[in-house]
C-alpha cells in the first residue's frame, strides 16, 4: 500500500492523564500475547517494601485513561544503590517483542555517577549498550550470550566481546539504541529484519545525526550480523554495509538541543528518538525530543524541543509534520518533558490518532538554589546501606519533589490528506 500523506498533528490537551509510576523514561513494546510491556529505569518498584532500581520492566494493563501497572515476575533484580560496587551499572533502554522473545537494551556509562565519597564524578557519560532477552515472554531472562542469570559485568571487564556496542567512534555513538516498533509481536514486519536507530554521538554535530541498522530477526543478539544504512538507493530503497565506519545517516535534527555540561551530576544528552510503524496509514512515525540547554550547557535548563516526522520507509525520508520548540504539555511552564514514545497498541484502527507517553524531569525546588536535584538527597540518604530503607527514602523523595515523573499520556490526532 502507498503511504498516506500526513500534513500535521494536534496534541489534545484535554486527554492528558498523569499516572503515578515513579521511574523514567518509558519504552513501550507490544508483546505477541497482547500484553504491553514498558522498559524503565531509575525508579521505585511496586513492591512492599519499595525497591529502588536502575532497570525494570512493567506490564501496562488497560486502555487510556484507565491504566494500571504490574511488576513482571522473573525480571532480574537491578538494584539502584548510591554506593557503586565493582560491578558496572546498567540503565533500561528500548525494548522489543519479536514473537515470544523480548529484547531489552541495557545502557552503561564510563564510570559510576558518584565518587566513593559521594561527590559527583565529572565526565559521566554513556559509553555502551548490551542486550538481555527473554525467550518466553518475560518469565526468564538471559544475557546476550545466552547464559543465565543476568549479570552486571565488572567496570573493567566490559568490551565489544560481551556488549552489543562499547566505546564506539565518535564517543557516545550507539550508546542508546532504539528499536523500531512494528505491531503486535513485530507482526507487521514483512522483510524479516529488526531495525534499530542510534544517535551518532553525544556532542554536536554528531549528536544531531540519526543512524539506522538492521539485523535478521533470528540474529538480533549477533553484532556480526548487523548491517548499517549506507545511503539511499533507486525507487526509495536503501543500501547497506557491514562496515560500521561506512555508515550514513537517515536524518539530522536541528542544532542547539544537545547538552554539553558533564559537571555536578549533569550528563551530555541530546535526542531521544522513537519510531513506530503506523500500519493502517502505511507510514513510519518518528517522535523525538531535544534537550533544553542552559547557558552553562547543562541539561533540562529550559523546556525541551518536541517534533513529529513521517516517512514511507524505516530509512525515511522523514518529513516534519509537527514542531514545538518549548514543549510544555497543557501549558505547564515548569515542564521538562522528555523521551516521547508512541504506544504501538494505542494507534487507532484507522491510523489517524495515537497515544503518546512521556516522562517529565520537572523538579519542585527552585533551580536557582539547587544546581543538581540529587545534591540534597545525597546529604540525606548517602549513609544508607540497607536496600529496603533506601527504597523507602528514595520513594519519599520522588513523591515529594518529582510528581510529574510519572507515566504521562496524551492523544495525538493526525491530519491526513
Query: Helix- and strand-based class?
Result: mainly beta
H-E order: EEEEEEEEEEEEEEEEEEEEEEHHE
> What is the assembly state of the chains in this entry?
single chain
Terminal-residue CA separation: 15 Å
In the CATH scheme, what's the topology name? Tachylectin-2, Chain A
Write down the CATH class: Mainly Beta
Query: If classified by CATH, what would the architecture be?
Result: 5 Propeller
Largest sheet composition: 6 strands, antiparallel
| Fraction of residues in β-strands | 35-45%
Shape: globular
What does this protein structure show overall?
This protein is mainly β. It has one domain (6-416): 5 Propeller (Tachylectin-2, Chain A). Helix content is 5%, strand content 40%. The protein has helices spanning 375-381, 387-401, and strands at residues 6-19, 24-30, 36-44, 52-63, 66-71, 78-79, 90-98, 101-109, 126-134, 165-166, 178-179, 193-199, 209-216, 227-232, 238-241, 249-252, 271-278, 283-290, 304-311, 319-327, 337-342, 353-360, 407-416. Strands 11, 12, 13, 14, 15 and 16 form a six-stranded antiparallel β-sheet that branches. Strands 2, 3, 4, 5 and 6 form a five-stranded antiparallel β-sheet that branches. The longest helix has 15 residues, at 387-401. It comes from Jiangella anatolica. This is DUF4185 domain-containing protein.
Amino acid at each position: 500500500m502507498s503511504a498516506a500523506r500526513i500534513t500535521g498533528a494536534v496534541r489534545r490537551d484535554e486527554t492528558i492523564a498523569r499516572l503515578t509510576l515513579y521511574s523514567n523514561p518509558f519504552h513501550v513494546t507490544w508483546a505477541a500475547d497482547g500484553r504491553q510491556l514498558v522498559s524503565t529505569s531509575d525508579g521505585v518498584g511496586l513492591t512492599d517494601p519499595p525497591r529502588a532500581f536502575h532497570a525494570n520492566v512493567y506490564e501496562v494493563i488497560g486502555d487510556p485513561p484507565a491504566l494500571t501497572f504490574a511488576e513482571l515476575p522473573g525480571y532480574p533484580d537491578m538494584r539502584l544503590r548510591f554506593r557503586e560496587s565493582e560491578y558496572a551499572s546498567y540503565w533500561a533502554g528500548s525494548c522489543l517483542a519479536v514473537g515470544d522473545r523480548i529484547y531489552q537494551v541495557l545502557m552503561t556509562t564510563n564510570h559510576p555517577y558518584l565518587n566513593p565519597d559521594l561527590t559527583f564524578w565529572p565526565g559521566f557519560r554513556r559509553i555502551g549498550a548490551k542486550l538481555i532477552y527473554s525467550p518466553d515472554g518475560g518469565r526468564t531472562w538471559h544475557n546476550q550470550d545466552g547464559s543465565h542469570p543476568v549479570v552486571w559485568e565488572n567496570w573493567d571487564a566490559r568490551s565489544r566481546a560481551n556488549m552489543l556496542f562499547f566505546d564506539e567512534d565518535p564517543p557516545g555513538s550507539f550508546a542508546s539504541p532504539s528499536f523500531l516498533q512494528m505491531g503486535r509481536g513485530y507482526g507487521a514486519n514483512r522483510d524479516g529484519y529488526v531495525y534499530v536507530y542510534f544517535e551518532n554521538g553525544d556532542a554536536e554535530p554528531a549528536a544531531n545525526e540519526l543512524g539506522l541498522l538492521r539485523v535478521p530477526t533470528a540474529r538480533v543478539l549477533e553484532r556480526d550480523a548487523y548491517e548499517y544504512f549506507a545511503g539511499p538507493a533507486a525507487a526509495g530503497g536503501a543500501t547497506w554495509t557491514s562496515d560500521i565506519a561506512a555508515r550514513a545517516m537517515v536524518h539530522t535534527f536541528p542544532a542547539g538541543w544537545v547538552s554539553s555540561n558533564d559537571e555536578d551530576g549533569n550528563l551530555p544528552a541530546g535526542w531521544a528518538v522513537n519510531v513506530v510503524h503506523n500500519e493502517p496509514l502505511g507510514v513510519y512515525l518518528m517522535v523525538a525530543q531535544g534537550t533544553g540547554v542552559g547557558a552553562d550547557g547543562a541539561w533540562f535548563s529550559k523546556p525541551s524541543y518536541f517534533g513529529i516526522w513521517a516517512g514511507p520507509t524505516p530509512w525515511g525520508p522523514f518529513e516534519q509534520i509537527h514542531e514545538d520548540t518549548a514543549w510544555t504539555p497543557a501549558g505547564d511552564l515548569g515542564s521538562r518533558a522528555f523521551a516521547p514514545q508512541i504506544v504501538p497498541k494505542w494507534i487507532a484502527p484507522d491510523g489517524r490518532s495515537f497515544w503518546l507517553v512521556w516522562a517529565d524531569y520537572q523538579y519542585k525546588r527552585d533551580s536557582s538554589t539547587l544546581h543538581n536535584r540529587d545534591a540534597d538527597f545525597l546529604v540525606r540518604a548517602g549513609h544508607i546501606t540497607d536496600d529496603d530503607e533506601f527504597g523507602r527514602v528514595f520513594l519519599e523523595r520522588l513523591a515529594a519533589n518529582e510528581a510529574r515523573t510519572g507515566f504521562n499520556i496524551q492523544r495525538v490526532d493526525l491530519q491526513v490528506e
